[in-house]
Amino acid sequence: MHKLSTKKALIAFVIFGWILVIVADRVDELRVYQGATIAITTLSIASIILLTGYSGQVSLGHGAFLAFGAYAAALAQTYWQSPFWFTLLVAVMVSAAFGFILGFAAGRLSGPYLAGTTLALAVGLPTLANQFSFLGGETGLVYDAGLPPARFGEEFTLYKWFFWIAVFVVLIAMFLLRNLLNSRFGRTWKSLRANPTAAALCGVNVAQSKVMAFTISAGVAGLSGALLGMISIVAPSAFPLSLSFTIITGAILAGVTSLLGSMLGAVVLVVIPEIADVISHQLGDSEKVVTNLPGFIISVLLILTVLFSPNGPAEAMRKRREQHAKH
Amino acid sequence: MRNLLGTLLIGLTLGSVYSLMALALVLVWRSTRVVNFAQAGQAIVTTYIAYEIVTRTGVFWLAVLFAVAAGALIGAGVEYFLMRTLFRHVDEGPVAALAPVIATLGLLGVIRSIVGMIWGNDFRSFYSPVSTDNFVLAGETIPFSRLNLLIILATVVVMIIFSIIFQRTDLGLSLRAAAFQPEIARLAGIRVGPIRTLGWVFAGVAGAIAGVLVTPTTILSPNSLDLLLVFGFVAAVIGGLESLPGAVLGGLVLGLGVSIVLNYVGTSLVFPSIFVVLIISLIVRPNGLLGNKKVRSA
């Protein structure tokens, strides 16, 4: 595949961001909020793509790292009164530190062991919030980005401000991630996934590279978690087990090896609840259906994708192209 | 002294339930090399079925019977329809090794949302079949009730039945052979396919019993068994994912550990300590207490 040079990619990112900002001016509040959600989900899916698609490790509990990031950012804001940009930095650092610890154990684990360990983390973590009072219990902590600067005028709503911040941070992070994955590190991780033994023979330090992938992935997840906390709340209910499932589904749907696909996955994930709303309206708006239908659709999509196109639609299309080329 | 006795008895009760869940995970792992995260979902379905029967008829044993039958059926169904399709379709590519794990995760999501659609997400209480009043021993109450006793006894009975099947019957021999060396077992004339399904059936039964036993001590909701799944997984890892006695031992060790933390440290540290135990046991004894020496790989 043809790859853009770094300079051209930078220009593409800037133009894309500009278009988003212009579009955001012309749509209603709900769409702006959904746009922010898509941006944040894209980033959390990207963290899985780095981890699973590149380094070949699996995490069923990446929601836990989003929670680490969100709580770290909220704590930094509540107790240190840190400026907003600094809380994001704290989110990345704290989450990456936890990722480093887990990655250290993970480097020695494979497949199901790692899956189970990360799942255990995601199941157990929300129970902690109720045990320590400084975490704010079920109601959680307050975390926000402050009001939009006055010079943007009265028209400039809070959600638009959130959207700007989310898009700005996510675009920068995605640009850095893209460069990282195209660098020596990205290639090293790919070699780990393809064949660890061969990679080791070529002089790759397998354990170290795996830990590094886990650490960076956790840091990225933490950043997206802090942003998620900004647009919603920082409480156990914001980081349920289903969040981890959702992120994985997005990554698998997107084709777990393509960073660009993460945006597609995020769009699908945000659109599904809308579709589910329409369907449950048709079915008579029973509360049980309304709350459970989105999860049902997402899980079914996950199973179907794993069964019939496990490497994602992008990979399947590439395979077909290659087969065409052969004939 | 009283405190110590209470801690031991609670540990034994918790350990019994963890062992059953661990047993379910190990049985599936041995038969298909998959950690079945959907086990929590399968067990929640059977527990809701038991709940319906108990609330309608009031007969606990009938409910257990139906739960066990449903557990066996669901286990067989999942293996036959999902796992076989999966192994037929997925052969190579970046996620091939992870596909089974992700599929069971998806299944957990599907089951949970279906259960939510049928019964709703609110908490229900599952009435205990026997008294939950604590026993009084020599004038002192000990934190141990008839329900706890029932849990331990039922687990022991299940374990005895399972070990007779596995150690004393031809069927058990085939199960062990198919788990140990599927290719050679096939060459020796064992029909590995149906034997695999049978592994899932036994796992479904163990999970169903665990769900029915543990739910009267807590509450019932579509995700109320998630923590049990995690405890079962940790127990299975402690014991070595390969070994059935290991699963039981791991469950008991974990149960006692949790009970000690609960009694002497406090609720707040149960989960962190479990997680630390899991990480340490994976690093120090990756093959588990009773696991074999084979390297752990997917």
What features would you describe in this structure?
The complex is a heterodimer of chains A (327) and B (298). Chain A is mainly alpha-helical. Chain A has one domain. Chain A is built from 13 helices and no strands. Chain A is globular, with a radius of gyration of 20 Å. Chain B is mostly helical and 298 residues long. In chain B, helix 1 (2-32) runs antiparallel to helix 8 (192-214) and helix 2 crosses helix 8. Chain B is built from 11 helices and 2 strands, in the order H-H-H-H-E-E-H-H-H-H-H-H-H. Chain B has a domain at 17-224. The N and C termini of chain B lie far apart (46 Å). Chain B has helices spanning 2-32, 39-57, 60-89, 99-119, 146-168, 170-180, 182-187, 192-214, 226-239, 244-265, 270-284; strands spanning 134-137, 140-145. The interface between A and B is large, with 54 and 58 residues.
Pick out the low-confidence regions of chain B. none
Q: How does the major sheet of chain B shape up?
A: 2 strands, antiparallel
The 3D shape of chain A can be described as globular
Number of domains of chain A: 1
How many beta strands in the DSSP annotation of chain B?
A: 2
Largest interface summary:
A-B, 54 and 58 residues
Main-sheet strand order of chain B equals: 1-2
Distance between the termini of chain A: 19 Å
The SSE string of chain A, one letter per element, is HHHHHHHHHHHHH
Radius of gyration of chain B: 19 Å
How many helices of chain B? The count is 11
